[in-house]
Amino acid sequence: MDSETIKSQLITAVNEYFNQVTLPENGLFVLGFSSSEVRGDWMGQNSSAEIGEVVIQTLLPILQAHHVNLAVQGCQHINRALLLEREVADRRGYEIVSVVPQLHAGGAGQVAAYKAFKDPVEVERIVADGGMDIGDTQIGMHVRWVQIPVKTSVKEIGAAHTTFLTSRPKLIGGPRAIYDWPDDQQL
């Protein structure tokens, strides 16, 4: 899979996502990503630093334009730890853990993000506002409840299945509950 095709597919998919979804300013977008799957191989079997670089270098400017921060999910060999900027981890109160991603322990996306971030750190858990999964890496555990799938015209990046999620606050209450404050409502 050539870099320009991957870049083009990613730009189209992420722009379509943001045409449907508005994440909060300084929100958190989680990326789950398998460069092996993009190449058409089984996850973790043929990692590509080049594909990792293309994905991260393409995604970061789009997220920055939307004032959204990136967290990159690592592979199972680092227990799906997440790489993000220290400032984001500190602001959100996430506990930092010690591990430096490698191509086969963290993955190509984490390695590329580690190089691109100003002050990268790893954390065990996050609560993201939305995200993108390239290669069925299962990002749902990192997106806050209630998760909402978002459809785009791009079903694959390279050979990897692609899905998106956003989220909304839980709707609680019973039959008397309302979820928007009417302008004419009396207390």
Automatic annotation (TrEMBL):
Pfam families: DUF436
Domain of life: Bacteria
Gene3D superfamilies reported for this sequence: Hypothetical protein TT1679 (3.40.50.10360)
Family indicated by similarity: Belongs to the UPF0340 family.
Protein name, per record: UPF0340 protein GM612_10925
Annotated source species: Secundilactobacillus folii
